[in-house]
User: Fold this.
Amino acid sequence: MGFQEEKYNIDTMKANISKLGVMLSSHYDIAILPEGGSLVGGLFRQPPLNNKIDFKDFSIRATKVVLPGKTIKTSTSKVLAFDYEHPSEKVFEKTLRITFLNDASNLLRNFFYNWQNLIIDGFGNHRFRDEYACTIRIASEYQNDTTPIRTSPTGRGVRFGSIYSFRGAYPRVVSGNEFLSTQPNPVEFDVEFDYLIESTESER
Assistant:
């Protein structure tokens, strides 16, 4: 059997998927967890957030997550009169981007605005990172029967695959609402987070 025949052999594909599972783009869980001493936890206990927005809403209303990537930069060198792109450095993208489905009263977006106010207030006063930092935990879910079911921080029973943790995170950019009269779609907004430490682990 040739390579292409082996690659697209249905039995081979089923065996591989059964063995390794799949990571589905629509199956993930998000938790925003205030770190020790962080003032962000107080935002969940203040009106009008109290009894209206809790930790579960971030996972329910997140429509898209873009994890940071890595890039190898190159410089052009001449090798035997030919241009050669020589790897020069590895660059880590420091932006975690999450798109949220906005609510009718802007409570979720205002939560992030209030979080930003904890970083720099209206008078230009700055706080230290340990006063406003959170850990953002994003867990992808595998869809097979061999991964044990665990309880996520939001209380759901899920089969975790990879877990991505971003410590010392804060919302650097919160986009505004976009209204279009020609397309009556739900309004979404983006939040770009900066962070200190990224780590990845597997629950498999």
